[in-house]
Task: structure prediction
Amino acid sequence: MFDSNYKNNFYSYYFYFSLIFFIYAVVPYILQLSGLFEKTLFNHFPKKSHEEEREYILLILSKINFNYLFLLNIILFAILAFISVKILVKQNENIIKIDEKFIFLSQIIIILCLFFLLKDLLDYLIYYKNIIKSSGLVNPFLDRNNFYQFFLDRRQTHFIVGSIFSIFCLKHNKILIPLIFLSILSFIEFSSLSRFYIFLIFSAIIVISKKKYFPILFFVIFLIITYRFFLLNGINGFFSNFTFEPVSLVSNEIIKILNGLKELEKINFFYDFIKENVLVNFLFFDYNKSYYIFNDIYFKHFRSFAQYGLLDILAYPIQIILLCSILYILGKILNNFHNLSDLYLITNVFSLFMIVRGSAIYGLSFIIKMQLIFFAMTIIILVIEKIKVLKI
Result:
């Protein structure tokens, strides 16, 4: 099922990258040109109950030039593509073969993540049972809002780390432990009417799979994307909700840009921009402890939408450069010990979504944290080999 030709995987990743660019940059622009951007937003703000919000949306949209916005998004994605090609996912595969000890340690990491996942599952089942008792719904399975609240403030790093190593181990013919982890995670996702992690899991699987499996896997992706729409809204709500995803993200970007333009008018802008951000911890980043040019001080967001993370490239250029430098240095060091090409591909499938619809700072720092895990695994392997030599 999995393609051993790294170049094929490489091209599949950049097809995935291009698809993300098309969905989040090109589609909103096309919708605006066809007059559907505003209409898509208004479908989520009914006229009878949201008259003020609709007027505010019209005011905000009148302040933005979508041609310049589209150009800005092309530039931001081009910068991300440059970072990706030069540092994150390179065309040439490392010639060093993957160590069996590294694969074994990968399974240990999955087991550790599985422990936390099982705790989440137990907590979730208890929560689900309480929701059934208190909701009074005929079908509490469809109570999406309550289930979303369960995951809202919980740490989910083990979801991502466990998924990345599980897919990596599956490619290297280690089936049982990865399959258990991915099955439990998929159960939690489906039962909570979520789709984020299963979408990323199957996207990563597509990237490293042979082309003959693409039709089946793309169909699975389609089902993952659409199943909640059909359950909650039926066929009529499908197209509206499908286009709302990129529209809502770009709406968040528009508000951020308008706030940023207002901040640029301040006399002491560059002083604050440099002074407040130069010493910010970029690995364990906290927006509240930095000067964020795009804060919604002057213009408030329409609603709590996903964050347009690529704007971090403009908001924190020094931090982005430092993160990229560390990524490059750690990558160079690790390439001397293991072939991590597959792991980088899989990790970047997950981090690309973090960067685009979340935070570029968090997405890039997550890759560094994954590199530190790879580094720790490398040290453990070197110690084991050293002990074996001493015994001899």
User: Anything to note?
Assistant: The chain has a mean pLDDT of 85. Residues 6-391 form one domain.
